[in-house]
Design a protein that fits this description.
TIM Barrel; alpha/beta; two-stranded antiparallel ribbon; about 20% strand; about 40% helix
């Protein structure tokens, strides 16, 4: 099996069609890599396909899946896995990640639903992850997800995540905002949670905004700017684990590209603070 290839050290940006045409005419130097959901691009033709091809030929990319439903109860869609493999190979993309959740049960549910934190679920997920890795012929990364209920819970979230990654022998896509959101919603210390993660498995990270619906409820919307507390958690993650590639997500209320690039710049500023004097440099697109 081919080892997972890390995106370049630096800051990344989730590619959205809202600024796809603009990127065809400019290459923002602060963006070291881009991320796309393969399901949104497989089989797409026309101008958008040509623009994507031009970008993947010039820049580093990673793929983040939306609909594999790796924790689901129904059989894996191995046809989708094969199509994803062809897409990755066709665009020269090494790293593929998915959510540690499920999103289908006899049909797509259009949401990321929580997997029960149980030993049985650990074994179920590990079998499915290993099967996907065998088909893709590469390691994958799983993202720690936001959740709003914990049905059938027998383990803590941190113990569950750690067990899945170990038994499946896969990598971690660290979502910093999700740790903050879950800490508010489920009453735990996000800083303690972060320190207990297996840092050696982190391939890259996500950072995003959320909506504070109540004092004890955050909703992971990816529709707002990143708040100071989440920036602070990212800073702590670099202090504890070292600097790793980190990508800004924005899915709704998408502002002009230049406004997003200000947040990408802030990722780089925090990274630079932690690597000054180390002799390592940040990558450019």
């Amino acid at each position: 099996m081919n080892p997972a290839q890390d995106p370049p050290l630096g800051a990344g940006l989730g590619l959205r069609r809202a600024f796809l045409a603009e990127l065809a005419d400019r290459s923002p130097p602060q963006v070291a890599f881009y991320e796309i959901a393969p399901e949104n691009w497989i089989g797409i033709g026309g101008a958008n396909a040509r623009r994507l091809r031009a970008l993947t030929e010039r820049h580093a990319f990673v793929c983040h899946g939306l609909s594999l439903s790796i924790g689901g109860p129904t059989p894996l869609d191995l046809g989708l896995v094969s199509r994803i493999k062809g897409f990755l190979e066709g665009h020269g993309i090494a790293l593929y990640s998915e959510h540690l959740s499920y999103s289908s049960d006899g049909g797509h549910l259009y949401d990321l639903l929580p997997v029960p934190f149980t030993e049985e679920a650990v074994r179920h997920l590990a079998r499915r992850v290993r099967r996907v890795q065998d088909v893709l012929e590469r390691r994958i990364a799983l993202e720690n997800v936001s959740y709003y209920a914990a049905p059938g819970r027998e383990m803590s979230e941190i113990d569950f995540i750690t067990a899945v990654l170990a038994e499946a022998d896969c990598d971690l896509l660290l979502d910093v905002n999700n740790i903050y959101v879950n800490g508010i919603n489920h009453g735990y210390d996000p800083h303690d949670f972060l320190r207990r993660l297996p840092g050696e498995r982190i391939r890259y990270a996500h950072i995003a905004g959320h909506e504070r619906a109540a004092a004890d409820l955050c909703v992971d919307t990816h529709g707002a700017a990143v708040i100071d507390s989440v920036w602070g958690l990212l800073d702590q993650s670099y202090a504890h684990f070292g600097v790793f590639p980190t990508l800004l997500e924005r899915d709704f209320n998408i502002p002009p590209l230049d406004q997003l690039l200000q947040e990408v710049d802030h990722i780089r500023e925090i990274q630079t603070q932690h690597i000054e004097g180390s002799g390592r440099g940040l990558a450019h697109a």
